[in-house]
Design brief:
single chain, globular, mainly alpha, about 180 residues, 6 helices, two-stranded antiparallel ribbon
């Protein structure tokens, strides 16, 4: 994988993340969804095996939606601008999982060889993303500091699982 592709993937995800969070904070839940899904759609054009990559994206989206729905149901987090029912994980979170999945076989591919790094990145990076989203007004962590622990443990489990799935559904692998 070229360094240029890795950098572009990383930068595009960061821009998408900002679109999701700023959109939600400003009551524009569909803004991030449209931006994120558009970016992933463009990326899929350049994937050698787009069907496998799309399967990864949809699988990770499902896992992520269930995780965030559990967070919502247990009062760990409250989301702004749902885009539909307040009892369901917001549309912008669904889009965020779609965009995140597009990084697993590109800018996060290096984690395949470092399971401990995937655990550590999940345990630290997951909660930090929610804290940053809270500072920007898109979410509220409702039971802090317990919410940080729940997020850290959840992401420490999810990240290696998602990296494992990225190997199985690798749209960039030679067949």
């Amino acid at each position: 994988m070229s360094t240029q592709r890795v950098i572009i993937n990383f930068v595009l995800f960061q821009l998408a993340w900002l679109a999701f969070v700023i959109g939600a904070a400003n009551q524009l839940p569909w803004l991030g969804f449209i931006v994120g899904v558009s970016l992933v759609s463009v990326q899929l054009i350049f994937v050698p095996h787009p069907a496998r990559e799309l399967l990864l994206v949809l699988t990770i989206c499902g896992i992520g939606a269930v995780f965030d729905q559990l967070l919502l149901n247990h009062g760990v987090v409250q989301y702004q601008a749902h885009g539909w029912s307040i009892g369901l994980v917001p549309v912008w979170i669904i889009g965020l999982w779609i965009a995140f999945a597009s990084t697993l076989n590109v800018s996060m591919r290096w984690l395949r060889n470092y399971r401990w790094a995937a655990v550590l990145l999940g345990a630290l990076g997951g909660p930090l993303a929610y804290v940053a989203a809270q500072k920007l007004g898109a979410v509220t962590l409702t039971i802090t500091p317990s919410s940080h622990i729940v997020l850290g443990v959840g992401w420490a489990v999810l990240m290696p699982l998602m990296i494992h799935l990225s190997k199985k559904f690798d749209g960039y692998a030679h067949v």
